[in-house]
């Protein structure tokens, strides 16, 4: 079209004697031709065409084009500028209009996530991947001021904060299914310490946080999982003996959104858990080279801090690999706050419309899911582990001398300190390193 305009001089078509310019009227046919040409051209080409037309009309051409062709004078002037300078102006339509709050406060969403995510739990029924939180938008607004240093003037309204929470998949509403069955008197204190420990672990170089837990058993067979399939698959209309039973055990790195699944046909025992951690350790050592592991768990029967075989194995692991370990347990009846539960929720929604009738399909479905865009690493462990292994009191007393428990919360916070803390290790630097005391007032990892 530009070549056509250059070859067909608009000036020759519309040269008008000066004495009759004020009374000049374009015919309907010319208006139609010029209007159609302007409509079909876009951006700079359209503006240059309009500028050439106005120049051809001579003195008063802008007014004539505005009056008879309904062309905007601002657009015409921009076209004249482009024609005279030879520089085409870029159209930036996406930059127009009101900017979102993230453009004014780039770190706002990250700060909101930092505040809300530790206080969120997955849907206990695993029917959705929504995260429920007891924090309201008004509370989050106040915490942004108190914890992150924002001012009342620069923060958006509470309603905007509420919208951002929804967009981030946080749902600050009370639902019966998310209400814990019970709440012990130490619950608030445990949560306070867990959140503090996790935050400091994520912010400290050389400290890696893991979240461990096992999922409910999976019956292998043509059973319905309560979901819907686009392929129209239907499960059995009644339950019967499954072909096999698999139990998944997961290790999740919350800060990196990386997960590792280990499936077993047997029981998820203390030995099985630590062996899975030991299998993963060379990878963690190579990639992160941590001097301390912070492990989030719930107080399950096989991994609680008074399960003698678990304490023995985790202490032996720490000494064998020369790594400090901090066990941080979530309160009773609040296991859904454990970060790996969010991964289990995504997995359940990923395969609940499928018929899991073979071990290969279960492993394949687990491998194909993603959490925040990252696929898990999946492995089937063939070894069967015996149950009921425990230490006698004399042997356990020796292991108790190698661990540190937080006074008042002995069941939920345990440290295994096997290497000195250097002055470069930030939050641990000012704390003395002791092995002789079983219970301490101030925990080395909870300053």
Describe the structure in your own words.
- The chain is α/β, with parallel strands linked by helices and 447 residues long.
- The chain folds into three domains: 2-93, no CATH class; 98-179, no CATH class; 181-440, Nucleotidyltransferase, domain 5 (2-Layer Sandwich).
- It has helices spanning 2-7, 10-14, 28-40, 43-57, 61-68, 73-85, 101-104, 108-116, 137-148, 158-167, 187-203, 270-287, 308-321, 340-351, 359-368, 393-400; strands at 121-122, 131-132, 170-171, 207-214, 218-220, 244-253, 258-264, 292-297, 324-329, 377-381, 404-406, 413-416, 439-440.
- Strands 4, 5, 6, 7, 8, 9, 10, 11, 12 and 13 form a ten-stranded mixed sheet that branches. A three-stranded mixed sheet has the order 1-2-3.
- The chain is elongated.
Task: Show the helix and strand layout.
Layout: H1 2-7, H2 10-14, H3 28-40, H4 43-57, H5 61-68, H6 73-85, H7 101-104, H8 108-116, E1 121-122, E2 131-132, H9 137-148, H10 158-167, E3 170-171, H11 187-203, E4 207-214, E5 218-220, E6 244-253, E7 258-264, H12 270-287, E8 292-297, H13 308-321, E9 324-329, H14 340-351, H15 359-368, E10 377-381, H16 393-400, E11 404-406, E12 413-416, E13 439-440
Parallel strand pairs: 2-3, 4-8, 7-10, 8-9, 11-13
Antiparallel strand pairs: 1-2, 4-6, 5-6, 6-7, 9-12, 11-12
Helix pairs in contact: 3-4, 4-5, 4-6, 8-9, 9-10, 12-13
């Amino acid at each position: 079209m530009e070549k056509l305009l250059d070859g067909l001089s608009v000036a020759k078509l519309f040269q008008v004697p000066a004495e009759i310019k004020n009374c000049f009227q374009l015919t309907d046919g010319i208006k139609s031709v010029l209007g159609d040409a302007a409509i079909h051209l876009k951006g700079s080409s359209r503006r240059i065409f309009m500028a050439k037309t106005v120049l051809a009309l001579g003195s008063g051409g802008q007014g004539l084009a505005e009056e008879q062709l309904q062309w905007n004078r601002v657009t015409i002037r921009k076209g004249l500028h482009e024609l005279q300078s030879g520089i085409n102006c870029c159209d930036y339509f996406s930059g127009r209009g009101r900017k979102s709050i993230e453009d004014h406060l780039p770190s706002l969403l990250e700060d909101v996530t930092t505040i809300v995510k530790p206080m969120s739990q997955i849907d206990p029924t695993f029917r959705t991947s929504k995260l429920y939180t007891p924090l309201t938008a008004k509370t989050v607004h106040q915490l942004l001021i108190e914890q992150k240093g924002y001012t009342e003037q620069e923060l958006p309204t509470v309603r905007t904060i509420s919208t951002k929470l929804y967009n981030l998949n946080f749902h600050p509403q009370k639902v019966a299914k998310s209400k814990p069955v019970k709440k012990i008197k130490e619950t608030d204190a445990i949560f306070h310490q867990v959140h503090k420990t996790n935050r400091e672990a994520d912010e400290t170089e050389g400290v890696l946080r893991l979240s461990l837990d096992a999922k409910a058993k999976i019956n292998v067979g043509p059973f319905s999982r309560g979901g819907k399939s686009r392929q129209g698959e239907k499960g059995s209309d009644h339950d019967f003996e499954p072909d096999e039973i698999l139990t998944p055990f997961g290790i999740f790195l919350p800060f990196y959104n990386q997960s590792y699944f280990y499936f077993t046909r047997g029981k998820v025992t203390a030995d099985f858990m630590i062996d899975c951690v030991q299998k993963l350790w060379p990878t963690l050592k190579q990639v992160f080279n941590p001097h301390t592991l912070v492990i989030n768990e719930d107080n399950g029967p096989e991994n609680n801090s008074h399960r003698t075989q678990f304490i023995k194995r985790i202490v032996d692991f720490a000494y064998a690999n020369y790594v400090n370990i901090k066990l941080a347990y979530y309160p009773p009846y609040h296991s859904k706050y454990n970060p790996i539960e969010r991964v289990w929720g995504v997995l359940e929604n990923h395969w609940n419309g499928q018929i899991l009738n073979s071990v290969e399909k279960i492993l394949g479905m687990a491998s194909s899911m993603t959490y925040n865009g990252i696929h898990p690493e999946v492995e089937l462990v063939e070894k069967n582990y015996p149950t009921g292994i425990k230490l006698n009191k004399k042997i356990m007393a020796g292991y108790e001398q190698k661990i540190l428990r937080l006074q008042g919360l002995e069941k939920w916070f345990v440290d295994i300190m096997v290497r000195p803390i250097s002055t470069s290790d930030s939050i641990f630097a000012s704390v003395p390193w002791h092995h002789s005391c079983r219970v301490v007032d101030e925990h080395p990892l909870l300053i």
